[in-house]
């Protein structure tokens, strides 16, 4: 596509910028002629034709809207886009009323905006020419327009509607022409948009150019955003004869903008997570590292005079501290994989009863407060296909929490029940419980209930549990009462495979 443009601009910097923006566009070839004076522009237009004029209203030999008027006298059929300053948008609107096809504000021009404005300006100019030439040619260009276009009376009654608009509304011409535009279903479903439309028609009928982005309720209750403009067409005396309503569906652009905002919000969330991670690591690693440092120092300086039992006590403390750090690192790695969506699901054959007994034994070895853990098994089939590491994360974290947040000596129950191709695990404790206000947020990474007090923790365990349950295609439900205890109920299919969870 070849477009010939006359640029009337006396500022070399602005002229060079516009030339560079046009060169950066793709799919269109431009021929750009630049002049600094209005009389030079008039001379060029007298000798040759141009597809479009980019016009600065402030020139050495002409200033203000009179510049546009003089240019239109020489080239009434040539598309004109007026260039205004930052604070001259009102002048731009007046220019449109005086015959310019559009306006753009200097300092806000991008390649995309410039190319789009030029194309729309040329299209509008051609449309008006076709209207004057003949009804047949008007209908051809009117129906081929990619914009949603209608011709209205000054009162808003539809005179003509193009094919693009008919396709958009899903209606027939006979159900639109002759009726007020706001009676169409898409406007009836959107009362606020309907009020905006009526406001625009009122202004346009008084000779004002109206343009606004309006949200409509479209098919399937989807929000459709339309860039709507209403341009009055006047006779020689200034009387408004009809209104040209043009709309462009910009929903895709709006969705893209929303996605950008969503991405920015996600970046902010990740930044906050990183900050919480640093805070958690510095806090949770300090205790086991201090234990290791203290016990190792004592062993180095005084172990020669100690009994074997006392040495063993400090070795056990070091081992438990190392184990705690290893568990923390494992949780951090798992959470990292969850955030990156790279946590793998690898099911293997398991005997669930045997597996649960192993988990209970491991938890009781680390339980300094000696809570009895009862395993209650029902059902005749405890064989399953599950991811062993993830199941260990589920039961290990829930049992660990049950022990940590329960008074010394109180019991914890682990129920294992198989039925109808599913297994139900229930972990019941008699601990501090979870306040109702916290129960919706406990699955969030780093979130801890408000009643944990000085009990240490990372806020990672339940986030890992939830994702591990989801990868198994299961569900987890919590029933808890502050001060009375908590029951976690996990339902998983007995046979899981990576294909169904990928």
Task: Summarize it.
By secondary structure, the chain is α/β, with parallel strands linked by helices.
- Quantity of strands, as a count: 19
Largest sheet: 5 strands, parallel
Strands ordered across the widest β-sheet:
2-1-3-6-7
The residue fraction in helices comes out at 40-55%
Low-confidence stretches: none
Radius of gyration: 37 Å
Q: What is the general shape?
A: elongated
- How far apart are the termini? 47 Å
Structural class: alpha/beta
The number of helical segments is: 16
The portion of residues forming beta strands comes to: 15-25%
> How confident overall, as mean pLDDT?
85
How would the blueprint of this fold be written?
Blueprint: E1 2-8, H1 12-23, E2 29-35, H2 38-47, E3 52-56, E4 58-59, E5 62-63, H3 65-74, E6 79-84, H4 89-97, E7 102-105, H5 111-133, H6 135-144, E8 148-152, E9 158-161, H7 163-169, H8 185-188, H9 191-205, E10 210-217, E11 223-234, E12 240-249, H10 251-284, H11 286-302, H12 308-339, E13 347-351, H13 352-365, E14 373-378, E15 383-387, H14 388-404, E16 412-419, E17 422-428, H15 461-471, E18 475-481, E19 485-493, H16 498-501
Parallel strand pairs: 1-2, 1-3, 3-6, 6-7, 14-16
Antiparallel strand pairs: 4-5, 8-9, 8-12, 10-11, 11-12, 13-15, 16-17, 17-19, 18-19
Helix pairs in contact: 5-6, 11-12, 12-15, 13-14, 14-15
């Amino acid at each position: 596509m070849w477009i010939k443009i006359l640029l009337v601009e006396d500022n070399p910097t602005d002229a060079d910028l516009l030339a560079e923006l046009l060169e950066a566009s793709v799919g269109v070839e431009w021929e750009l002629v630049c002049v600094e004076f209005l009389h030079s522009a008039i001379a060029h237009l007298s000798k040759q034709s141009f597809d479009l004029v980019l016009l600065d209203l402030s020139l050495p030999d002409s200033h203000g809207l009179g510049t546009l008027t003089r240019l239109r006298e020489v080239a009434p059929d040539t598309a004109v886009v007026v260039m205004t300053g930052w604070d001259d948008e009102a002048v731009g609107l007046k220019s449109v009323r005086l015959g310019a096809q559009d306006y753009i504000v200097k300092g806000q021009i991008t390649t995309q905006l410039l190319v789009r404005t030029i194309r729309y300006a040329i299209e509008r100019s051609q449309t008006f020419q076709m209207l004057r030439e003949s009804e047949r040619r008007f209908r051809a260009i009117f129906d081929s327009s990619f914009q949603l276009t209608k011709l209205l009376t000054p009162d808003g009654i539809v005179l003509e509607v193009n094919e693009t608009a008919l396709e958009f509304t899903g209606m027939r011409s006979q159900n639109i022409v002759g009726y007020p535009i706001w009676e169409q279903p898409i406007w009836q479903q959107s009362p606020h948009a309907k009020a905006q439309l009526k406001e625009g028609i009122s202004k346009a009928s008084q000779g004002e150019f109206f343009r606004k982005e309006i949200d409509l309720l479209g098919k399937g209750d989807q929000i459709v955003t339309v860039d709507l403009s209403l341009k009055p067409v006047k006779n020689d005396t200034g009387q408004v004869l009809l209104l040209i309503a043009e709309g462009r569906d910009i929903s895709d652009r709006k969705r893209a903008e929303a996605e950008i905002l969503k991405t920015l919000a996600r970046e902010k969330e990740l930044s906050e997570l990183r900050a919480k991670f640093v805070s958690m690591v510095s806090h949770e690693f300090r205790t086991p590292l201090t234990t290791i440092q203290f016990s190792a120092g004592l062993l180095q300086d005084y172990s020669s005079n100690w009994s074997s039992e006392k040495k063993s006590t400090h070795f056990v403390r070091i081992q438990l501290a190392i184990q705690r750090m290893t568990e923390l690192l494992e949780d951090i790695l798992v959470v990292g994989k969850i955030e990156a969506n790279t946590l793998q699901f690898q099911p293997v054959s398991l005997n669930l009863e045997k597996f649960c007994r192993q988990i209970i034994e491991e938890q009781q070895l680390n339980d300094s407060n000696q809570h009895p853990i009862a395993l209650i098994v029902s059902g005749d089939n405890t064989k399953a296909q599950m991811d062993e590491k993830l199941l260990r994360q589920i039961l290990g974290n829930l049992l660990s929490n049950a022990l940590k947040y329960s008074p010394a000596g109180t019991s914890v129950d682990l129920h294992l029940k198989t039925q109808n191709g599913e297994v139900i695990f229930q972990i019941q404790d008699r601990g501090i419980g979870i306040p109702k206000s916290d129960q919706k947020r406990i699955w969030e990474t780093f979130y801890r209930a408000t009643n944990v007090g000085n009990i240490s923790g990372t806020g990672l365990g339940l986030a890992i549990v939830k994702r591990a349950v989801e990868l198994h295609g299961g569900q987890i439900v919590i029933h808890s009462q502050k001060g009375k205890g908590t029951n976690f109920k996990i339902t998983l299919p007995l046979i899981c495979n990576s294909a169904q969870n990928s």
